[in-house]
Amino acid sequence: MSTQAPAPPPGAAPEPAEPEPRTDLRDPRSWLPSVKVTAGAFVIALVIGAFVIAFSDDDVIESLSYFGSYPWDFFTRSADAVWSSYSALVRGSVGSSNAIASTLNRSAPLICAGLGVTLAFRAGLFNIGAQGQLIVGAICAGYVGFTWDLPPVLHLVVALIAGLLGGAVWGAITGFLKARTGAHEVITTIMFNYLAASILIFALGHDTFQRPGSDNALSPKVDDSATFGKPLGDGFPVHTGVVLAILAGFAVWWLLERSTWGFELRAVGANADASRTAGMSVAKVYTLAMLFAGLLAGLAATMQVLGNQNSLSPTLPGSIGFDAITVALLGRATPLGTVLAGLLFGAMSVGGVAMQASAGTPKELTDVLQALIVLFVAAPALVKGMLRIRETGGGSTVMAKGWGS
Amino acid sequence: MKLEIKGLTKRFGSFTANDHIDLTIEPGEIHCLLGENGAGKSTLMNMLYGLLDPTEGEILVDGQPVTFKSPSDAIAAGIGMVHQHFMLVPVFTVAENVMLGREQVSVPGVLSRRKASAMVTELSERYGLRVDPGTLVEALPVGVQQRVEIIKALSNEAKVLILDEPTAVLTPQEIDELMDIMRSLKEQGTSIIFITHKLREVKAVGDRISVIRRGKVVGTAPPSTSEAELAEMMVGREVKLKVDKDPPDTGAVVMSVEGCTVVDPRGHQVVKDVSFEARAGEVLGIAGVQGNGQTELIKALLGLVKPDAGVIRLDGDDISRHGPRESLDDGIGYIPEDRSHDGYVGAFSVRENLILDIYRSDEFSTGLALKLDDIAANADARIKEFDIRTESAETPVSSLSGGNQQKVVVAREFSRPLKVLIASQPTRGVDVGSIEFIHKRIISERDKGTAVIIVSTELDEIFTLSDRIAVMYDGRIVATVSPDIAREDIGLLMAGATPDSGPASGKTEEVPA
Question: What is the CATH number of the domain that holds A231?
């Protein structure tokens, strides 16, 4: 059915057509709907989260047994539980200079890996492989970090480059497979995640990667000369890798919006056929996009292995590579959005631990909140319906190409 | 059945797509709905077929007001629709397609193909719609597939049949056959709403012609009205249906093709041993029914597919192995057949689309960095020069009307020096006003000394623009003729009649070897 789009009729003065969501910051119409929807998603998630907190609190449950005779208790106890949990969450994540530093340190790898997923998204590729790229990057950076012996700053730079290269190569292979053979990147990146995870386990079983005197699968400590320093001291223990994460955000923005290469990448992501007809090499874009996505995941790996943990272990990657996908989705595949989403996830992760410690709320609640926020952001029509937001726009969902391609 | 539309209005936000439309479809009449793309014809039909809710106004069937919540309500009321893009299952037979949705059963749960076949045969005999119920739909030519759609609508006992741009996909012969079918349906009492933007067709078959412009019915005219008057009603100003052009000042051969053969991925030879020459300052029209190898031929010319045999030369240099990037840099301008698929990136702004294949030139980039100011200045200049109606240069191309989208593509291709311009269906789905403009620009490009190759399935377009016409059939160029050939003769060539067997032999010349 050729449903008639409300396009301005030819010959008419240009009608104010539907404003599409575009990131022109001068015009509030272009971003206000997106901001409203995202804010709406937060509010709804926090409200549902409040119910979860209330009904998982023993005092609140107890008050329900005499709700009929004295309902007031239920409400005060619920409010107490919700308030203490949420305030602990906020205090734990941004309430002190220490908390802010922890949040930043936790956010940095999420931001970098998220940027990798964002970059691939814009090329029309669904990069599930941030986890594998991160693991390979971590192995390379870690190896240089604890086996080589180099002067302080040089050692860090070399380890950093090793991490970047490791991730980049791992990503580029899947990009190349896609470009050359059409192998779907979702499948290849998932399989490459398994490969990378197994390689890490295998490496940790090897003597080179075994910490002397330890029975655990744990590598030696990375030399101090190869770790990110904490130049602001113990008062604000943030490591220098955080600066790199912010720079990476800026670099990705510049590449996407201001460079010929980003122009090609976005064009291929939006319409590969038209890009090919315009003389672009779709194969080159796919390979390079995955290479840079892997590079950014490798950067995330260095934050972990040279910054936060200082040694390789099977738990080092955690779920950063998968959270990165969520971060990129929440950030609507824009560099700024990804940085902000990464900060949010870092804050919730750090705050969640504090919440469990001080308010006794299970820290899994923060996972529930994260999941709800992303769920509602991904379903803008639902949020608009619930909050009666009438404006059009803000409804673009991030889409990579489907299975058919 | 008498269908009346009273004050029907549809608004999308602040935009009024249909503004108080009044129409009456009498029983047994062919009522043509003429209008440019974006005039609101489809919106109106979607409301009639229950796909859109009217904002205001009412629909009356035999004097009784009705509301259609969904197409099934409309079908129950006796309205049938044949969509521009067919809604058939290719791997099902004709009979299976017709019974789709209300399957004929012998015992409950068991399909009865015999009953379905009998129904199709009965309908096809009654209305003169020749079709074999047992054939798979994918094996049928487009014109016959359309007949299946019509039978499908009639099997629902449609009293009013809506045909949405039915001729867009047909050959001239198939169009004649469709018109015969429409006349026979009319004789049996079925009313037809015939949507089109082709003036010739409404005059040939219509009983009454209603013209829609910018969402309003601007008038109803008898079929005796002249084409020029109808075009003026459609566009709202006087329109030249023919571009003025001087005789060509033909120069040297710019592009030559020798023995070009293309095999598609399924192993079929789709272009067979094609040879021709395109000269500076002339327009070579390639006529032919859709799907006779034109698409693959011009893709090979640009380098999007590599020819499996043969040589393509540009200024004497062999470019058969070049990719699109080299071809574009060599000075080939390319307006693809399907603009939304190959011509522009819908999500990109007008500004970005205007540099889609020239962003890498020194004019718009230094090293890796785009020159944003120059890109913006270029966009402003092109929007003005080509009269692209857009809210701003930032507007995504997908939200422009078809004509303006095509202007973006045309403006981009004309914004660099060209040796050869290859334009496929340059005005498909474009309104009359924009057609006039695009045709003028193509002729002025020719007059600058560019070799122009036009591929079109619209004979009007081929006749308007071409200085020479090559006719393609089944992957071959079957004849190269001069544009003063009679319409019927070229129609025969397009349908595969050999030049010497047809009456056209006097005016055709064989392809020069």
Answer: 1.10.3470
Distance from CA of A296 to the nearest CA of B (A): 20
Q: Is B368 in contact with A281 (Cβ distance < 8 A)? A: no
**A290/A345 same-domain check:** yes
Task: Give the CA distances from residue B200 to residues B179, B230, B390, B431, in Å, rounded to whole numbers and listed in that order.
Answer: 12, 10, 31, 15
Q: Measured between alpha carbons, how far is B451 from B455 in angstroms, rounded to an integer?
A: 13
Q: Report the chain B residue with the minimal C-alpha distance to residue A392.
A: B13
Classify residue A403: in a domain, yes or no: no
- How close is the nearest chain B Cα to the Cα of A6, in Å? 6
- List the single best residue of A2, A284, A396 to mutate versus B (max B Cβ within 10 A): A2
A211 shares its domain with A319: yes
Contacts of B359 in chain A (CB under 8 A): 260, 263-264
Tokens of B494: 């397009």
Residue B421, token pair as written in the block: 């311009």
* CB neighbours of residue B258 within 10 Å: 16
Helix (H, G, I), strand (E, B) or coil at B119: helix
Select from A18, A263, A270 the Cβ nearest to the Cβ of B370.
Answer: A263
Q: Each residue's pLDDT tens digit in chain B (513 positions)? A: 889 999 999 888 777 888 899 999 999 899 999 887 667 888 888 899 988 889 999 999 998 999 998 888 898 899 999 887 788 898 999 988 888 877 777 777 787 888 888 888 888 888 878 888 888 988 888 788 888 988 888 888 889 999 988 887 677 778 888 898 899 889 988 999 998 877 888 888 999 999 998 888 998 999 888 888 888 888 887 777 677 888 888 899 999 999 999 998 888 899 999 999 999 999 999 998 877 889 899 999 999 999 999 999 999 999 999 999 999 999 999 999 888 889 999 999 999 999 999 999 999 999 999 999 999 999 999 999 998 888 889 999 988 877 889 999 999 999 999 999 999 989 877 777 788 889 999 999 999 999 999 998 888 889 999 999 999 988 999 999 999 888 888 888 887 776 554 444 344 444 443
- Same domain? For A385 and A289 the reply is no
Domain co-membership, A375 together with A332: no
- Is A281 in CB contact (< 8 Å) with chain B? yes
Q: Which domains does chain B have, with CATH numbers?
A: 3-235 (3.40.50.300), 253-509 (3.40.50.300)
Residues of A in contact with B51 (CB under 8 A): 1, 3
Residues of chain B positioned with their CB less than 8 A from the CB of A15:
14-15, 391
CA angle A121, A125, A128 (to 5 degrees): 90
Q: How close is the nearest chain A Cα to the Cα of B342, in Å? A: 4
Helix (H, G, I), strand (E, B) or coil at B359: coil
Which chain B residues are within 8 Å of A281, Cβ to Cβ?
A: 325
3-class secondary-structure state, position B414: coil
Structural domain of A122 = 105-359
In a domain, A98, yes or no: no
CB contact under 8 A, A10 and B404: yes
ipTM value, please give it.
0.80
On whether both A44 and A119 belong to a single domain, the answer is no
A301 and A344 fall within a common domain: yes
Query: How many domains does chain A contain in total?
Result: 2
